[in-house]
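Quick note —
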Amino acid sequence: MATFLYRLGRTAFRRRWLVTLLWAVVLGGVGLGAVKAPAAGDDGTSFMPGIEAQKAFDLIGERFPGSDANGADARIVFIAPDGEKVTADDHRAAIDELVSTAAEGPQVDNAVSPFKAGAVSEDGSTAYATVTYKVKAGDLTDAGKDGLEKAIDEARASGLTVEVGGTALASQPAAGGSAEAIGIALAAVVLLITFGSLAAAGLPLLTAVIGVGVSMCAILALGSALGLSMTTGTLASMLGLAVGIDYALFVVSRYREERANGHDPREAAGLAVGTAGSAVVFAGLTVIIALAGLSVVGVPMLTKMGLCAAGAVAIGVLVALTLVPALLGMWPNAVLSRKVRKAGKRGGNVGHHSESADNGGTRWARFVMRRPVAVLLLGVAGLGALALPATQLEMGMPGAEAKPTSTTERRAYDALADGFGAGFNGPLTIVADVKGAADPKAAATTIAEQIKDTEGVVSVTPPQLNEAGDTALFSAVPATGPNDEATKDIVQTIRAERPGLEADTGATFEVTGSTAMNIDVAQALQDALVPYLTVIVLLSLLLLLVVFRSVLVPVKAALGFLLSVLASLGTVVAVFQWGWGAELLGVEQTGPIMSLMPIFLVGIVFGLAMDYEVFLVARMREAYVHGERPAQAVVTGFRHSARVVVAAAVIMIAVFSGFIGSGESMIKTIGFGLAVAVLFDAFVVRMALVPAVLALLGDKAWWLPRWLDRVLPRVDVEGTGLTERSTPAGGDQRPREPVRI
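Predicted structure written out below.
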């Protein structure tokens, strides 16, 4: 692989204009496709095959033909001024006018006045009207929305406070914007400090932005055909930008190192792609496998987000292997430090300006290796303490209550909770299959009455039979909010009553609705978390066994990965569930952690952890194989890789932290979780625990049974097959300096 990538790097350098033109054509092509493609429809993010709520949802579609439970809806909430009631003549007239106008809009299926539906609070201060549509939220046209928005503005002009919930006018989180801008700005500062060259700092940013541009345009172009939304693409944007910068950073850094060793620009580009590029391929492959593996969990939204992000990472790898060396070919000396460029202008050799024997990496490595036991105990104890809150992890699917109070959806949610009770925002939908009952109507009534008597249920609507008379549908309103633990208990209690009711009536029922759906999805994902984590850990053991040809190094890496994941999960629970420091991050409502977040965290952090493990430890193994003592090899690895790994981790943290400012709870939680996970994994596990463990293990760290050595495939990640090329023509082979530990 190293030889192939070496040739690829040299070819891209030589054919730089052609390679750059090809990427420009690709970007232009997918950009045109994104502009011309129809808008993406609703991606159905809430549904998961196999759970009870989904089965009940499917039964409704089957037994009540023509009813589209996926259709968009708008719940318009009216709040009268203090001391007044919505039933006053002027307010009533304004509400009726709004409902009439809304009913005439295109794509509207039905609009129900609160005065006909009895949707007025007991004190008369609040009322709501429901507008349902024939199409999903993603398929609503601007004309369908504009009429409703205009009617709402007219009602507000009458003196009423009007807020809108539901899916029809819900604000959609957008990928791009300030989050990426903040991340890019911070990354630019880190790169400038690391390289001391504007060109070297700008090149990884430029190529990463191009890669993300290709990825996001492709998602938009395929959105309608594959059901991809901007929410689906947010993770691809976030991760594509982070790994795109990092992978280009590794190649540029190795190019500078090879130039410092005296190689001409084209040879240095080939060696950089053949060595650092090999590690990029392996690291990118681990991220792609982890992201693609999300599809086995069984959540369509998770599958789409994982595959889109995997595609973005793949594009980032291709950009690093082709476009980066091509751009290096256009400005071969611009990425070198100012000191090296000045030496070249004075007639000096740009080579032999490699890193000194002592730098920050070597000093840190020696510090750790003089106190390995203390560093190991302190690191493990610290991460273990941070992981403790993870034992109290509660998973859910935050809705409008998690949005900022600046949004009309959150204000509508709060107004309905104040006027009608907390549980009104999360009613349970009960679908009763009365096909086997002697008296279907009586059976449905009995089921409804039994559920009404369940502790925690406030009210139940009368059952409505379908035309065939074999299925009944009604709603039950719990006393508590959708994400309250008590609501979960109510759902479980209702379901526990099913066997007795089935024996008494000959009919059965299932519970669905958005609240029950979220409860079932959260439980299914919680059940899938441990198996998925197990698979990821086993995969990391296998991959690192092949790369490092060692038994203990992969075990150490996998255990470190577990520590960083659990510590980051614990930190997320402490902030977003318990509320520790939540105000500092702009979290207005604490509660259960988004169900998808832990699975995302495990998959993504696995890939990123393997990145740092490969780039750091591979240089140690290379030095050990070439005859250095174990302790000396660790210091050598830190001399070459520590600075770049630290810069890469800081860039990752900067990019992910930029998303903490998002108003979307899901994006904010993922951004924070990934940022702290990279912080723990890179700076505690890889930079502290790894050298401490290797210092304690000594030669045993690189032990591999002979039979296993024969069986394992050989993957030249660090390009040892290019060793004979590492000395420039006419150059000298200086012996390695001994390193004091």
